[in-house]
Amino acid sequence: MRTIIYAITILAISLWGCKNQSSQDKHNHSETETHAGHNHEEHDHCHEGHDHSHEGHDHEHEGHDHEHETAEEHAGHNHESKATKHSDEIIFPKAQAAKTTFEVREIQPASFNQVVKTTGQVLAAPGDEAVIVATSNGVVSFSSNKLTEGTKVQKGQSLFQISSKDIAEGDYYTKVKATYEAAKASYDRAEALVKDKIISQKEFESTKLEFENAKTAYNAVSNNKTAKGVSVNAPINGHMKNILVKEGEYITVGQPLATVSQNQRLVLRAEVSQRYYNAMQSVKSANFKTPYDNKVYSLEDLNGRLLSFGKTSNENSFFIPVSFEFDNKGEVIPGSFVEVYLISSPIENTLSIPVSALTNEMGIYYVYVQIDEEGYRKQEVALGANNGKEVQIIKGLHPGDRVVTQGAYQVKMASASGAIPHGHSHEH
What we know:
- This protein has helices at 2-87, 94-97, 172-195, 201-222, 277-280, 408-414; strands spanning 90-91, 103-106, 110-124, 129-133, 138-142, 152-153, 158-163, 225-226, 229-233, 238-243, 250-251, 256-261, 265-273, 285-289, 296-298, 305-309, 319-327, 337-354, 359-361, 364-370, 375-386, 390-395, 402-406.
- The chain contains 6 helices and 23 strands.
- Strands 1, 3, 13, 14, 15, 16, 17, 18, 19, 20, 21 and 22 form a 12-stranded antiparallel β-sheet that branches. Strands 8-9-7-5-11 form a 5-stranded antiparallel β-sheet, with no helix packed on it. Strands 4-12-10-6 form a 4-stranded antiparallel β-sheet, with no helix packed on it.
- The chain folds into 3 domains: 1-87, no CATH class; 90-124 and 264-417, Elongation Factor Tu (Ef-tu), domain 3; 129-261, CATH 2.40.50.100.
- The chain has 428 residues and is an alpha+beta fold.
- It is 34% helix and 33% strand.
């Protein structure tokens, strides 16, 4: 019983203690909340100020980050630009370039000339050709079976033989000789008669003229008389430009047989549209391109000079003739038709490149620009005036660009193998 009472007492004390502690905790908690609320507000206020400063710091940091991001973005952009720049790069190794005709030229602004493009013809210059004519009637034969157009000949060389032995009208030499002898006799007689005033001076002059003509014909035949007939010789050094007769053909005195050309001087004759008449005032020289070798010749390199240009045109033509004379130092064929580039007034401070630098794809022109030691870039260009050798660049290139002027086709072929091969790197 005592034990039970003791246990009840202990339990009661415990319950009272718990209740008291609960009340104290409640009070303390309330005070703590009140204090905490007060202090928290003050602390938070200060902290907020601190945070504001910190936020300001963060803002600056954010700004710094922004700059950093911009730099990174910019770096990324630059990297992308570089990647883009080299994405179409064509590699043409130096070892490969050394095996072919290859040249790169840095282009800079310079003077260029306006160009009037037309067509023309190369002709022999006056005095550089001689027409060979027959000196007798008869059947013609060639002195050599190697005589053809283009054959070189020397002055005095026998080219043709004319025989009249077996023709119905008789031997031409015999007839000419007889005519000469009769004319000489008449002249000698008239010379004596005119001194005695038996014949008039007019009659004497007529007799004298007949004698001189007969003498000229006889000398032309007798000086070149051979066993085969009458020889016809080359009057000048040169080559056979054309042969106008065939072996065994019957010919008459004075008939053209052939033309011998020296080709020392040639004439370039062009026909220019009337709309370029004003530009003709400033034309001083020209280039021309031959169709048989596709080569461009410059009159400046051939001691060329302007002969004349027409002040008027033919009533049946809308073109004005212009003529140049030049030395025949190249393989220019007289009579050939050519493309003509008339060089007119200058254009200052312009970019130009050799025509050999151009490639044409579907009517669009491209060049290849060197971007590093073995790397090249395909660049579209817009063209201006073209003088056959050089062409003006209107758009697509800048001063200082290094352009492939010889070997552009080889670089174009290299582009078919891909952009940048493995093992090739660039330092930028």
